[in-house]
Amino acid sequence: MLTFFDSRGRYDVRAWMSELAAIAVPDEPIAIICHSGGRSNVVSRLLDRQFGYRRVHNVHGGIAQWIAEDRPTVNHR
Question: What confidence tens digit (pLDDT) does each residue in 10-51 have?
Protein backbone atom coordinates (compact mmCIF):
# COMPACT_ATOMS: atom_id res chain seq x y z
CA MET A 1 0.00 0.00 0.00
CA LEU A 2 1.34 3.41 -1.00
CA THR A 3 0.03 6.79 0.09
CA PHE A 4 0.33 9.59 -2.46
CA PHE A 5 -0.80 12.51 -0.27
CA ASP A 6 0.44 13.03 3.28
CA SER A 7 -1.82 14.12 6.16
CA ARG A 8 -1.47 17.76 5.09
CA GLY A 9 -2.30 17.07 1.45
CA ARG A 10 1.29 17.39 0.26
CA TYR A 11 2.93 15.00 -2.15
CA ASP A 12 6.27 14.15 -3.77
CA VAL A 13 5.63 12.70 -7.23
CA ARG A 14 9.21 11.52 -7.78
CA ALA A 15 9.44 9.70 -4.45
CA TRP A 16 6.02 8.12 -4.90
CA MET A 17 6.78 7.02 -8.47
CA SER A 18 10.00 5.44 -7.25
CA GLU A 19 8.07 3.42 -4.67
CA LEU A 20 5.41 2.52 -7.22
CA ALA A 21 8.00 1.30 -9.73
CA ALA A 22 9.14 -1.27 -7.16
CA ILE A 23 5.70 -2.92 -7.11
CA ALA A 24 3.96 -2.10 -10.42
CA VAL A 25 4.81 -1.66 -14.08
CA PRO A 26 2.95 0.43 -16.68
CA ASP A 27 1.50 -2.50 -18.65
CA GLU A 28 -0.10 -4.23 -15.64
CA PRO A 29 -3.43 -3.24 -14.07
CA ILE A 30 -3.32 -1.02 -10.99
CA ALA A 31 -6.15 0.19 -8.73
CA ILE A 32 -6.05 3.59 -7.04
CA ILE A 33 -8.34 4.34 -4.10
CA CYS A 34 -8.86 7.17 -1.61
CA HIS A 35 -11.67 8.06 0.79
CA SER A 36 -14.25 9.35 -1.71
CA GLY A 37 -12.67 8.95 -5.16
CA GLY A 38 -11.58 12.54 -5.85
CA ARG A 39 -7.88 12.37 -5.04
CA SER A 40 -7.54 8.91 -6.52
CA ASN A 41 -9.04 10.27 -9.75
CA VAL A 42 -6.27 12.91 -9.90
CA VAL A 43 -3.56 10.31 -9.28
CA SER A 44 -5.10 7.92 -11.82
CA ARG A 45 -5.06 10.58 -14.52
CA LEU A 46 -1.46 11.51 -13.64
CA LEU A 47 -0.35 7.89 -14.01
CA ASP A 48 -2.16 7.51 -17.33
CA ARG A 49 -1.31 10.84 -18.96
CA GLN A 50 2.20 11.51 -17.70
CA PHE A 51 3.68 8.12 -16.81
CA GLY A 52 2.19 5.72 -19.36
CA TYR A 53 0.22 3.50 -16.99
CA ARG A 54 -2.61 2.52 -19.36
CA ARG A 55 -4.46 0.05 -17.15
CA VAL A 56 -5.18 2.33 -14.18
CA HIS A 57 -8.50 1.84 -12.40
CA ASN A 58 -9.81 4.55 -10.11
CA VAL A 59 -12.18 3.14 -7.50
CA HIS A 60 -15.10 5.54 -7.99
CA GLY A 61 -16.70 6.53 -4.72
CA GLY A 62 -13.54 5.56 -2.85
CA ILE A 63 -13.24 3.35 0.20
CA ALA A 64 -16.32 4.99 1.74
CA GLN A 65 -18.55 3.65 -1.02
CA TRP A 66 -16.66 0.34 -1.07
CA ILE A 67 -17.44 -0.18 2.63
CA ALA A 68 -21.03 1.06 2.24
CA GLU A 69 -21.51 -1.64 -0.42
CA ASP A 70 -20.21 -4.18 2.13
CA ARG A 71 -17.22 -5.15 -0.02
CA PRO A 72 -14.25 -6.90 1.65
CA THR A 73 -11.45 -4.91 3.28
CA VAL A 74 -8.17 -5.77 5.02
CA ASN A 75 -6.56 -3.73 7.80
CA HIS A 76 -2.84 -3.23 7.07
CA ARG A 77 -1.95 -1.57 10.36
Answer: 999 999 999 999 999 999 999 999 999 999 999 999 999 999
- Across 25-63, b (16+ Cβ under 10 Å) vs e yields eeeeebebbbeebebbbebbebbeeeeebeebebbebbb
Which pairs from 49-56 meet CB under 8 Å and 24+ separation? Answer: 51/17, 51/26, 52/26, 53/24, 53/26, 54/26, 54/27, 55/27, 55/28, 55/29, 55/30, 56/29, 56/30, 56/31, 56/32
